Amino acid sequence: MLEIAEFINPTPSPLWKLAKQAGVDLAVAGLPFDTLQAGERVSSLSALQRMKDRYAEGGFKIEVIESRPPLNLAKRGLEGRDAEIDVVCELLTNMGKLGIPVWCYEWMTDFNWVRTNMATPSRGGSVVTSFNANDVPDSITSNPPISEAELWTNLEYFLRKVLPVAEKANVKLSMHPDDPPITPIKGVSRIMRTIDNYHRLIDMLPSDHNTITMCQGNFTLMTDDLPREIRRFGKKISFVHFRDVKGVPTAFEETWHDAGKTDMLACMKAYKDIGFDGVLRPDHVPTVEGDSNEHAGYSSFGRLYAIGYIRGLRQAVYAN
């Protein structure tokens, strides 16, 4: 049965207690960028072991690492990419030693997820993030354009280096989609943005360890039937971001988990049907009264509503 996890930053915060109070014992972890000692990298066994121990002291077991060392040289195929890839290989090897089974990565070049408004009004005075392609600033990147063909070539080079290491370590590579799933953005192409492209990814190098992150907010912008696509991907799904949006890829906003375009109950039923046994976490929640919007989409109080909503859906679907 799928388990509910939460993204917990490696630095202890009030969210640690809130998550425990909401009944969450599984962590989607970051990387120890802020606690490195002399001679360590974020991929070093000693640094990862200390991080794992710190989570354990807070009552959490790490199921996924959802943070990446620098990878832009690899994505662009530039000199120095092999050194970046070596860090990833070390990370995967040491995740295997520590029993952390999934690494969530992405192939978004120059910039990660993009929003053009971090405080769009939503239900009852809450605020959410939103995106409009017409409002993306030219300053988002100073790098030259890159084509989809180049990104595919560089991704295959990357996977041929890291997938054998992942297989040996028994760690699943879990590709997160482009957010938003459009191309290009200010000349920078994006390739993990369609259902067909995801099948191209998993067919490129067939392996039980070449898998995907089903980030529902992105995938629901790629299809009019998300439960169907969940069933089609089946065992290739190793990690789930449970969230929703309304709109179209070029103009959308995040929503409360019960107020978007997706049939979330049908999605939960689809995960049961495929025998999904990984972790699912809420993602991109509204900021509500009394909470800070400093980290838009990741405020603490909104997560409590999301966790409760997801727990109710899971109970309804798995009760029998």
Structural features:
320 residues, alpha/beta, TIM Barrel, 8-stranded parallel barrel, 4-stranded antiparallel β-sheet, 37% helix, globular
Structure, described:
The protein is α/β, with parallel strands linked by helices and 320 residues long. It has one domain: Alpha-Beta Barrel (TIM Barrel). It contains ten helices and twelve strands. It has helices at residues 14-21, 45-57, 72-76, 81-98, 148-169, 195-204, 216-219, 226-233, 264-273, 300-318; strands spanning 3-8, 26-29, 61-65, 102-105, 117-121, 127-132, 172-175, 210-215, 237-242, 245-248, 251-254, 279-282. The strands form two sheets. The protein has an eight-stranded parallel β-barrel with strand order 1-2-3-4-7-8-9-12, surrounded by five helices. Helix 8 runs parallel beside helix 9 (264-273). It is globular, with a radius of gyration of 19 Å. The model has no long low-confidence stretch (mean pLDDT 97).
Summary, kept brief:
The protein has 320 residues and is α/β, with parallel strands linked by helices. It has helices at residues 14-21, 45-57, 72-76, 81-98, 148-169, 195-204, 216-219, 226-233, 264-273, 300-318; strands at residues 3-8, 26-29, 61-65, 102-105, 117-121, 127-132, 172-175, 210-215, 237-242, 245-248, 251-254, 279-282.
Give the DSSP E fraction (strand runs of 2 or more residues). 15-25%
Query: How many separate domains?
Result: 1
Provide the CATH top-level class: Alpha Beta
Largest sheet: 8 strands, parallel, barrel
Helicity level: 25-40%
- CATH architecture call: Alpha-Beta Barrel
CATH H-tier superfamily:
Divalent-metal-dependent TIM barrel enzymes
Do you know the CATH topology? Answer: TIM Barrel
